[in-house]
Structure formats: structure tokens, C-alpha cells
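User: C-alpha cells in, sequence out, please.
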């Protein structure tokens, strides 16, 4: 059979043996027949909240946070429609704030691509500044005593609107919701505190778990301290069509949204596989290896111990080069050294991706098909894959032709789980 793996802005057609291969994808959800009408209806009749128009008085300032270029959120549709709905608010009283988290700033060209040139031309659009001490307000502390710092443009606004989309998330349970506030517009030090070794290593910091997940619960607690925020989240299918709109109360609207996603994304499997091939959902999520850990995390859930995990992740932006994750991986002699340094108390930005990669590599042999030079992959303690079909064939031959293969064409948009473990 030929399976098309999401890769970059296209697909990789890969041949797999019919008799040995199981293809695992989210249950299909059709796109809404009128996305804009559904969005307006959600703003007018939100979940456990007053209609958005009623939140805004004549002198109120509005901050709209939106997800950055590493996310598949259809900002180019959502944001212009939302601004049209808010046409009664003068432009100068609206700030659009990019939820960078700890990612790099987006360029003007990228912002125009994300939001449309018209929005960037006529509204104040800002990149969050996670490393600027002057850019934040304090809202108590994180559990370890680190200040909980949130971007001042968001914190000081009379009305806060958090936009984004909901998908499974490998350590926060699901994206969207409170993540649009922290880590979205939080200080680097606050994010590092929450994404520390203990929280990342907790078994409940995993796909599909919010309540009982110490990492997500802390994000929720900090986000609520900022004050009321209106949520506008959407769910998407494999072609980025909007399948549902969830608006209103920050917590309850998100809960209803992630339960909707759970029903389609969580895919039970009776037995583990010898080989798992996964994409990283294609562009924009597979822009770099940092994001690629998400695809690894989805695939390893149904892999036999010591099995072969193959990740297809384009990585057009590298690791990224000279990023904290790149420097951490390159400076260590082995993946075990990376883990040992983190467990001994060393802290660095982006350490959470390196920690998760190391934990995955304790359980699996990981090879990566990408545009990265082989020496870069090896410096990150990963094995390059030149041909996915050949790699699968060689592994099945090694197993005497008795191995089983799982393929996740949409990567971490699918969350497979073993029924014996319940997820």
C-alpha cells in the first residue's frame, strides 16, 4: 500500500507492505459549511460567558493573543473575522499579541502571511518578548517560587481575548485554552519553571491529560490569576478546515473543545508494534527538530520496547541552529549525558524537548527522515534515515518477516494508545 505522510507543505508517498501495516489516523470530521457564521454565532452565544460584545465598554482596551507561525491555527481567517466583529472598537484600542512562548519572533512578512497584510497594516501587532524583564507583570509565583510573569500588554488590557486551536499536546494534554496565556505570553523564566524536569517527567504530563497533570494545572492556576479572559478556540481537520468553534469561559470552553478533539484523535490499539512510522503533521509543525519531538512522542506510545521509530520531519529551519536545544544536544557526548545533566539540576531554555527526546530514546531506536544534513542529526544523537521504505523493509527482514508496522500519516494529530494501559 501507498501511504502519504504529511511532510513540509506536501506529502511523502511511501510504500508499505499491506499484510504487515496498520494506518492510524484521526476519525475524520467534516469542515463547517460556513466557518465565519459559526465563529460569529459562537461569539454571540459563548459557553458559560456573556456575548463578547458585552465585555467591551466605550473606553476599554482590547488585547487579542494569537498563536505563532509554528501552529496550524487558521489565523488568516480567524483574526480578520474577529476584528470585523469588533469593528465598533477603534483600531488604536486593540493590540494583537503573538503567542511566541519561548519561540523566535516572527518577521513582518510572516505576520502578514499569518494575519493578512491588511491586519498588519491597520492594527498594532506585537511579538511577545519572553526574555525582556520590562515586558511583564507579576501574578504571584510558580510552585517553586519563581515569579509568574505575564506580558503587560495582555495583563493590562481591559478585555483579554485568547485565540488558538485545540489539538493533542504531548505534555500539556491538549493545546489551546490557558496555553495561549502561559506559555504563550509568559516570561521565559516562568515557562522554564513550569516545564522543569520534575513536571516533564511526571507520568500525567502526557497527551490527553489535563486534570491531574501538574504541569497543566499550574498553567491553569497562573492564567486565572490574570483575571477573566475570553476564549476563542477552534478545532481543525487534516485539511485545516474548521470543524467546530469553542468560545467563552477560558476553562469550560476549552474543556468542551478538548473532549471533542479527544473523541476523534485518540485511537486505541490492542497491541504494540515493532515499527512505528510517524510524520510531524507537516508544515508548520515540522519546521524544525525542536517541534519534531512531538511526532516522536505520539509514535512511541504504541511501540514495543526497543522497537524502531521513524520520524518524517522536514526541518526547513534546522534544529534550529544555535538554539538552546541545539547547543544542549551538541555539547553532550550522548543522549544519556543530556538526561544526566538535566537530572542533576542543570537548567536551560528548551531543555524540556531534549529531556523528552532522551526519554523516548531510552525506549526506542529513533531514526529521522528530514532535510537536515546527516552530521546535524548525528550531533543531536539521532540516526539519519535516507529511505523510509528501505528502513522499514530492513527492520522487518531482521525480524524474520514477522514484524508489525504502524503508520501515523498525520503525526501527533493522532494519539494512539494501547488499550491494555488505557492511554
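Assistant: Sequence out:
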Amino acid at each position: 500500500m501507498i501511504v502519504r505522510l504529511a511532510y513540509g507543505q506536501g506529502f511523502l508517498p511511501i510504500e508499505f507492505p499491506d499484510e504487515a501495516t496498520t494506518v492510524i489516523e484521526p476519525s475524520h470530521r467534516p469542515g463547517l459549511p460556513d466557518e465565519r457564521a459559526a465563529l460569529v454565532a459562537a461569539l454571540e452565544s459563548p459557553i458559560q460567558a456573556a456575548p463578547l460584545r458585552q465585555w467591551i465598554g466605550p473606553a476599554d482596551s482590547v488585547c487579542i493573543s494569537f498563536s505563532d507561525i509554528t501552529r496550524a491555527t487558521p489565523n488568516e481567517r480567524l483574526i480578520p473575522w474577529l476584528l470585523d466583529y469588533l469593528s465598533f472598537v477603534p483600531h488604536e484600542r486593540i493590540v494583537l499579541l503573538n503567542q511566541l512562548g519561548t519561540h523566535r519572533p516572527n518577521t513582518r512578512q510572516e505576520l502578514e502571511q499569518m494575519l493578512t497584510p491588511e491586519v498588519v497594516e491597520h492594527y498594532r501587532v506585537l511579538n511577545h518578548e519572553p526574555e525582556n524583564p520590562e515586558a511583564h507583570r507579576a501574578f504571584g509565583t510558580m510552585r517553586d517560587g519563581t515569579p509568574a510573569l505575564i506580558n503587560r500588554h495582555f495583563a493590562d488590557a481591559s478585555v483579554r481575548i485568547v485565540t488558538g486551536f485545540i489539538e493533542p499536546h504531548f505534555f500539556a494534554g491538549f493545546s489551546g485554552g490557558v496555553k495561549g496565556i502561559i506559555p504563550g505570553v509568559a516570561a521565559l523564566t516562568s515557562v522554564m519553571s513550569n516545564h522543569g524536569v520534575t513536571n516533564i517527567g511526571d507520568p500525567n504530563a502526557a497527551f490527553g491529560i489535563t486534570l491531574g497533570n501538574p504541569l497543566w494545572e499550574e498553567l491553569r492556576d497562573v492564567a486565572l490569576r490574570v483575571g477573566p479572559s475570553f476564549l476563542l478556540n477552534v478545532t481543525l481537520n487534516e485539511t485545516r478546515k474548521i470543524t467546530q468553534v469553542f468560545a467563552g469561559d477560558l476553562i469550560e470552553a476549552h474543556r468542551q473543545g478538548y473532549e471533542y478533539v479527544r473523541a476523534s484523535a485518540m485511537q486505541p490499539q490492542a497491541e504494540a508494534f515493532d515499527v512505528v512510522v510517524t510524520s510531524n503533521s507537516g508544515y508548520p509543525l515540522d519546521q524544525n527538530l525542536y517541534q519534531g519531538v512531538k511526532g516522536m512522542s505520539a509514535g512511541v506510545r504504541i511501540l514495543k520496547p526497543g522497537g524502531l521509530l521513524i520520524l518524517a520531519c522536514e526541518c526547513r529551519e534546522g534544529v534550529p541552529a544555535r538554539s538552546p536545544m541545539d547547543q544542549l544536544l551538541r555539547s553532550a557526548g550522548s543522549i544519556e549525558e543530556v538526561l544526566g545533566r538535566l537530572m542533576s539540576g542543570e537548567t536551560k531554555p528548551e531543555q524540556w524537548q531534549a529531556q523528552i527526546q532522551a526519554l523516548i530514546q531510552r525506549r526506542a531506536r529513533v531514526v529521522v527522515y528530514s532535510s537536515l544534513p546527516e552530521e546535524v542529526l548525528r550531533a543531536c544523537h539521532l540516526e539519519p534515515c535516507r529511505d523510509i521504505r528501505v528502513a522499514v523493509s530492513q527492520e522487518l527482514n531482521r525480524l524474520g518477516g514477522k514484524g508489525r508496522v504502524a503508520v501515523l500519516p498525520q503525526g501527533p494529530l493522532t494519539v494512539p494508545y494501547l488499550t491494555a494501559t488505557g492511554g
